[in-house]
Amino acid sequence: VQLQACGGGLVQAGGSLRLSCAASGRTFSSVAVGWFRQAPGKEREFVAHINWSGSTTRYADSVKGRFTISRDNAKNTVYLQMNRLKPADTGVYYCAAEPTDWARAYKYWGQGTQVTVSS
């Protein structure tokens, strides 16, 4: 599975962005996907996870109620809708597929997309 994340950008606090993670590979629809982020000088942290069918989602406490993860398996794409963004949400966002530990370890990783939230 190869992953391509996009949709990042510069937004003011309180604004919204939608990230996309497009995948190639015929097995994508059968694997779970996660989003992570890494702020400058900080460790990468878990943001959200979705199972293969989209029936189960998980979120970091810091984004619950503001972010929504979803997927369209017909388009081989997973989305991260981010609302009410805060400066603390700034970082490089990565998507990943096929977890061995849904909050930490995934087999495949995409390149990141930068999200910057200004105050």
Q: What's the helix and strand layout?
A:
Blueprint: E1 2-6, E2 9-12, E3 17-24, E4 33-38, E5 45-50, E6 57-59, E7 67-72, E8 77-82, E9 91-101, E10 105-109, E11 113-118
Parallel strand pairs: 2-11
Antiparallel strand pairs: 1-3, 3-8, 4-5, 4-9, 5-6, 7-8, 9-10, 9-11
Question: Can you give me a brief rundown of this structure?
Answer:
The protein has strands at 2-6, 9-12, 17-24, 33-38, 45-50, 57-59, 67-72, 77-82, 91-101, 105-109, 113-118. It has no helices and eleven strands. Helix content is 0%, strand content 55%.
Polypeptide structure, described:
- There is one protein chain.
- With about 120 residues, the chain is an all-beta fold.
- Helices cover about 0% and strands about 55% of the residues.
- The strands form two sheets. Strands 2, 4, 5, 6, 9, 10 and 11 form a seven-stranded mixed β-sheet that branches. The protein has a four-stranded antiparallel β-sheet with strand order 1-3-8-7, with no helix packed on it.
- It starts with a strand and ends with a strand.
- The model has no long low-confidence stretch (mean pLDDT about 95).
The radius of gyration computed from the alpha-carbon positions, rounded to a whole number of angstroms, is 13 Å
Helix/strand structural class: mainly beta
Distance between the termini: 37 Å
Q: H/E element string?
A: EEEEEEEEEEE
Provide the low-confidence segments as ranges.
none
Task: Please provide the count of β strands.
Answer: 11
- Mean pLDDT across all residues, rounded? 95
**What is the helix content?**
under 10%
